């Protein structure tokens, strides 16, 4: 009986002393457990960074009123739109730059700096007494907060290949919860002298600055998240490919590269379609968050619901709780059953009738209005995170 040919041994990995990326790779290879500590800090920092993005929406209408920039009540939405969009404008211009910085000096410095900007500029936004100050602080907050791409890369790099989906899921879940809980904080804590007159006086600091309290609470939480970054190890490799080839040659394991040249990213249709889908739904979700808050607090004569900021916060809190329940008990089963593509398609299709139903709720009142609004908000929050969490497989994106 002929002997079967022996398989060539896989080349040994080369680790470089003083390289944080190699130290992380060595740690992953020697451990079989899930990096719960790192993922916990990833979730905390992601949650803290996402809170200020949408926290202003419940009180945005009232803030524009108090800044006395709109000549008529009908013009409040116009100025609120610019203020609400200023964060994303700054982020859109600076996101690629921060991704390059994270690839050059490391993920951890960008994460730390982003949390620091949340502490500073979110607090300054709460102190704003002029429209130009409010829009400038939001613009700088978005431009200097290059957090999302580095933290996603970090969550992948601290996990083994079979746990990378868990890392991305934690980032997306914490991010989605922040976008939901942020408005709840803004709704419950804005205008405290009006909402809680037995605690806050009109002449107190929070009475004179009615939107400082929610911003300050978020900044304090971001401070604790910033302190937690002390325990985050860096994951960026500090050596280049030339050093790797030289080390491999000295070890006698040189091999010719047989990799075919990669296609242009613009011709990677699965990747481009995923990016376009994500961009469109991000636009949709951001517009929904802002319009929902403006619509609910607008007067009945303008087609709104005449809600207070506290009422809006209560609706969004319930939506956030439903999102947490879905992520813990339903997400894994649904993802395994339908797959990412079908899940995204179904979520996108179901979003259409949900959004279309909102204008008709103005004809409801009392329990019927509350029931319809809460159910719609809960379903919409789940559909939004479903599209944001799903991602095509790596094998598809690398075609």
From TrEMBL:
Any Pfam family the entry gives: MFS_1
Keywords on record: Membrane, Transmembrane, Transmembrane helix, Transport
Record membrane topology: Multi-pass membrane protein
MF annotations from Gene Ontology: transmembrane transporter activity
Compartments reported by the entry: Membrane
Gene3D superfamilies: MFS general substrate transporter like domains
Residues annotated as transmembrane: 39-64, 76-98, 110-129, 135-154, 166-191, 211-232, 271-295, 315-334, 346-365, 371-389
InterPro entries, per the entry: MFS (IPR011701), MFS_dom (IPR020846), MFS_trans_sf (IPR036259)
Residues annotated as domain Major facilitator superfamily (MFS) profile: 38-399
This protein's GO CC annotations: membrane
Protein name as it appears in the record: Major facilitator superfamily (MFS) profile domain-containing protein
Organism: Triticum turgidum subsp. durum
């Amino acid at each position: 009986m002929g002997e079967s040919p022996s398989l060539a041994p896989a080349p040994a990995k080369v680790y470089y002393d003083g390289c944080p990326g190699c130290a992380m790779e060595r740690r992953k290879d020697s451990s079989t457990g899930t990096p719960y500590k790192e993922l916990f800090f990833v979730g905390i920092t992601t949650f803290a960074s996402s809170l200020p993005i949408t926290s202003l929406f419940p009180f945005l209408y009232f803030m524009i009123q108090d800044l006395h920039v709109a000549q008529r009540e009908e013009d409040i939405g116009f100025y609120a739109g610019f203020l609400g969009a200023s964060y994303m404008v700054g982020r859109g211009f600076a996101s690629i730059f921060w991704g390059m910085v994270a690839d050059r000096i490391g993920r951890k410095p960008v994460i730390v700096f982003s949390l620091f900007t949340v502490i500073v500029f979110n607090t300054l936004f709460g102190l704003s007494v002029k429209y130009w100050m409010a829009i400038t602080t939001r613009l700088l907050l978005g431009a200097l907060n290059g957090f999302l791409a580095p933290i996603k890369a970090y969550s992948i790099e601290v996990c083994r290949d079979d746990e990378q989906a868990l890392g991305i899921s934690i980032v997306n879940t914490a991010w989605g919860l922040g976008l939901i809980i942020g408005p709840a904080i803004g709704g419950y804590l804005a205008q405290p002298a009006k909402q809680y007159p037995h605690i806050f006086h009109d002449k107190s600091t929070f009475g004179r600055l009615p939107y400082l309290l929610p911003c300050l609470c978020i900044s304090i939480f971001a401070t604790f998240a910033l302190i937690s970054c002390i325990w985050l190890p860096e994951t960026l490799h500090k050596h280049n490919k030339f050093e790797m080839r030289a080390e491999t040659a000295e070890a006698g394991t040189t091999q010719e590269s047989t990799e075919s040249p990669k296609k242009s990213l613009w011709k990677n249709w699965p990747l481009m379609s995923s990016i376009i889908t994500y961009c469109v739904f991000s636009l949709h979700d951001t517009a929904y968050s802002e319009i929902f808050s403006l619509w609910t607090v607008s007067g009945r004569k303008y087609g709104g619901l005449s809600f207070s900021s506290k009422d809006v916060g209560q609706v969004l809190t319930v939506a956030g709780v439903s999102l947490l329940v879905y992520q813990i008990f339903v997400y894994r089963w649904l993802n395994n059953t339908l797959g990412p593509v079908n899940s995204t398609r179904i979520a996108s299709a179901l979003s259409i009738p949900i959004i279309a139903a909102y204008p008709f709720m103005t004809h409801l009142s009392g329990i019927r209005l509350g029931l319809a609004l809460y159910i719609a908000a809960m379903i919409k929050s789940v559909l939004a995170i479903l599209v944001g969490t799903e991602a095509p497989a790596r094998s598809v994106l690398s075609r």
